[in-house]
Amino acid sequence: xxxxxxxGGFAIRHYAAEVIYDVDGWLDKNKDSLTxxxxxxxxxTQLPANSTAESPSIIDRFVQVRRPPDEEGGKSKQxxxxxxxxxxxxxxxxxxxxxxCKCAFVRCLKPNTQKVPIVYDGGLVLxxxxxxxxxxxxxxxxxxxxARPLHEDFYFMYKPLAPTATNFLELAMELxxxxxxxxxxxxxxxxxxxxxxxxxxxxxxxxxxxxxxRQLNKERIEKLQEWGxxxxxxxRGSAAAKEYKQTLDCFYKTQTETRKFLAxxxxxxxxxxxxxxxxxxxxxxxxxxxxxxxxxxxxxxxxMLGEEQYMEKYLDATAGERFGIDKDEYETKAHEAYEQYQxxxxxxxxxxxxxxxxxxxxxxxxxxxxxLVGSQGSRYESQVAPVTRIKVSLxxxxxxxxxxxxxxxxx
Length: 411
Known about the structure:
Blueprint: E1 9-13, E2 18-22, H1 26-30, H2 36-43, H3 58-65, H4 82-98, H5 122-132, H6 134-143, H7 151-158, H8 168-176, E3 183-185, E4 199-201, E5 206-208, H9 210-372, E6 389-396, E7 403-410
Parallel strand pairs: 3-4
Antiparallel strand pairs: 1-2, 4-5, 6-7
Helix pairs in contact: 7-8
């Protein structure tokens, strides 16, 4: 029994840490067999199974694993328990799964004991690496042959370091012939100092020391970079030459087209200058004709001005005679208009007198009506239209001559 632990517990000191186990209730858990009623109820469910021979459903797996209890005694020798189910699952995992696969083990390390993200405990991780033997494994691996490529992979990987080698054996011998390097082939006589062997050629693989692998990889990367620079420079030179050739072709084509354009421009300019000279000559002749026409027009206007001055003087000389004739005609029209005015004025006066008589009669009737209905407080409103007074006068019409009758309303 472990001090401070559960009752019935024990501790086992593993390579990683000490683990405490509790054995209370182990036998009770191992006897939890199902009753026949529970098994029958679950096995007779009508839920869709959706199972196949390769992928059975949960109900089918339950029926296969949990065998029915014995109806006579209530229990069966084949009745499944928790421990039996665990044992069957374990056998199935080992026999059916692990044995039929190519296993690859993964070493998991805990970064911290709080189980929180982004927290790294270096001491804890180093302790786990020490307990799991990873550091010792790395040391042993480093002292041995950590790099073990196949013959074909070795040849294609390190061929840049020995371009003249035709196979992996020649390549290994050439690399092993360097200073501080030693190549040994399987079947040959071993040297006195086995640790001096840096490259060992086996039946299927080539074994290489860690320092040698690092040196070869460094040289390989430098060689590939050198070749890459050469290829890059050649490609860039080819691209530049191609671009230069295209530029030169474009220049020649542009030069041809430019010369053609300049020649056409010069020709068009000569034609334009010739047309302008012809237009200038035509314009000069046109301006000379226009000048002569303008001179003739000035002379004609001068002659017309003289005629107008003559007509003005003539009209001034004959104005008195013409005025006498027009005066008699205007006086005759004025007398006729005045006589018409006298006639219209007499008619207007007669109509005015008749209107006054009508208004007088209407006033008398209105007075009589007011006297008759005065006691009733009513008022008689005359139905006779109000008198409209119009003033008639004569106005002389200066434009058409004679007189014009003008009528104005007087409120």
